[in-house]
């Protein structure tokens, strides 16, 4: 009975609105990202983090030695759509608290799930190169955002996410996949254009939201423990599918949007509405 009561309280937390400061909304829309403190309690992170970690261990297929991996493979273990694998993982991914935050930050009437993904940067894991997520998505509107949820305190040595402030407004680098080239080219271009860099640790319970066209990166994990992160990608519930512009978008159209015809809204089965006013 106590375990049931405890889990009910955790689910209540995931459903209860977070008191979002209007200044955070303004900051997000100007800078393309925002970091919010104490969004999730240690109890929620411990409970669901354990479930997510078990799924990552069970579903991971990347077992090559680090020295044999590509730059992308060294960046993290990447396991997607955990919500389809486990009911408790689904509780976390479908959190109304987080989906409402995404809705309010973007200023839309509601959000759909694009997909979720666990990103576990192993000890000695390498950098996550500069990139913008929406390069990969065949979506017509820039109203997309990703919540980045560290499942532990994340000091600088573990490689927290870093953001180029205001970079969602520029066209540079929108045709570059995540790679050594994206790291070199974007680092140079962002510096030339004097974009401020936010590269700071994450406290336990702190999360970030970043827009689909905001350029971001992460450093290597120099610690002796994995940097465990869970993410959910949200899109405006009225998002429209657009014609794929590269081979990655062709793949995403098939995998995450079920090849729904161009010009249509995503379907509820694979891309459910998680919050709506």
TrEMBL record:
Transmembrane segments: none annotated. One of its GO terms (molecular function) is dioxygenase activity. It comes from Spirosoma utsteinense. Its cofactor is Fe(2+). Keywords: Dioxygenase, Oxidoreductase. This is Ectoine hydroxylase-related dioxygenase (Phytanoyl-CoA dioxygenase family). It holds the Pfam family PhyH.
């Amino acid at each position: 009975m106590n375990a049931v009561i405890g889990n009910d309280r955790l689910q209540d937390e995931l459903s209860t609105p977070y008191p979002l400061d209007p200044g955070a909304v303004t900051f997000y829309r100007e800078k393309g990202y925002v970091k919010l403190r104490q969004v999730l309690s240690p109890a929620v992170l411990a409970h669901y983090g354990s479930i997510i970690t078990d799924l990552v261990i069970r579903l991971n297929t990347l077992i090559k030695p680090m020295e044999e991996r590509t730059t992308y493979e060294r960046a993290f273990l990447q396991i997607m759509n955990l919500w389809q694998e486990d009911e408790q993982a689904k509780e976390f991914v479908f959190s109304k608290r987080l989906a409402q935050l995404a809705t309010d930050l973007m200023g839309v009437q509601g959000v759909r799930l694009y997909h979720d993904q666990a990103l576990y940067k192993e000890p000695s894991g390498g950098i996550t190169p500069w990139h913008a997520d929406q390069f990969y998505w065949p979506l017509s509107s820039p109203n997309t955002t990703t919540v980045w949820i560290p499942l532990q305190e994340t000091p600088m040595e573990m490689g927290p996410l870093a953001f180029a402030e205001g970079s969602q407004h520029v066209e540079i680098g929108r045709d570059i996949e995540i790679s050594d080239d994206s790291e070199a080219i974007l680092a140079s271009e962002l510096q030339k254009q004097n974009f401020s860099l936010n590269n700071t640790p994450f406290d336990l319970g702190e999360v970030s939201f970043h827009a689909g066209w905001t350029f971001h990166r992460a450093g290597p994990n120099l610690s002796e423990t994995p940097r465990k992160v869970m993410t959910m990608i949200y899109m405006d519930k009225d998002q429209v599918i657009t014609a794929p512009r590269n081979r990655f978008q062709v793949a995403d159209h098939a995998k995450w949007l079920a090849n729904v015809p161009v010009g249509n809204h995503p379907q509820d089965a694979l891309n459910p509405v998680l919050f709506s006013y």
